[in-house]
From TrEMBL:
This is DUF6286 domain-containing protein. Residues 72-159 form the DUF6286 domain. The chain crosses the membrane at residues 60-79. It comes from the Bacteria. It comes from Glycomyces sambucus. Keywords: Membrane, Transmembrane, Transmembrane helix. Pfam families: DUF6286.
């Protein structure tokens, strides 16, 4: 049986909250309009005044801008609803259903780089499928980059298929 891979929230979830807020604002506007039309409040309806302001034979700049904004917002909602949620963890090799978080991969890579000869400090950053390792080298260890690549590659073998890049800088004397 195939288990679903771990995913983040879908892109549409944020848009759904925005849509709910817009619908809530529309409901408040319609409630105010109904209360004004029934005579429950002593004010004119905002909706009636807004529609009266729009009753012009020539389209105004505000109507055009509102139409463009509504079209862009609708297109943004449509694209967000169709995008799948991104994977939150990386699959590990093996028979079981094992997933590794990106932070764990960064920590493993940083630890492996720090254990390479000549490395004083290392930090890693994972973006999609590219792992960037920044290392601070002890003076006189310029050839440590190959050791870092080998150490990180050995430690991450079987965990995730990643493109590893090393950026090394020699520490001051």
């Amino acid at each position: 049986m195939k288990v679903r891979d771990p995913r983040r929230r879908p892109a549409a979830s944020g848009l759904a909250v925005l849509g709910a807020i817009l619908l809530l604002a529309l409901a408040a506007l319609l409630a105010e309009h109904a209360a004004a039309e029934r005579g429950w409040i002593d004010a004119d309806s905002w909706l009636r005044e807004a529609l009266a302001a729009l009753d012009d034979r020539q389209p105004s700049v505000w109507v055009l801008a509102g139409g463009i904004a509504a079209a862009v917002l609708g297109l943004w909602f449509l694209i967000g609803a169709c995008l799948p949620a991104r994977r939150s963890h990386l699959p590990a090799d093996g028979d079981g259903d094992l997933w590794v978080s990106p932070r764990a991969v960064e920590a493993i890579a940083s630890d492996a780089a720090e254990r390479a000869p000549g490395v004083l400090h290392a930090a890693s950053e994972l973006r999609r499928r590219r792992l960037k390792v920044k290392a601070l080298l002890a003076p006189g260890h310029e050839a440590a980059i190959a050791d870092i690549l080998e150490s990180v590659g050995d430690r991450l073998a079987g965990i995730a298929e990643l493109e590893v890049a090393v950026q090394a800088k020699e520490g001051g004397r």
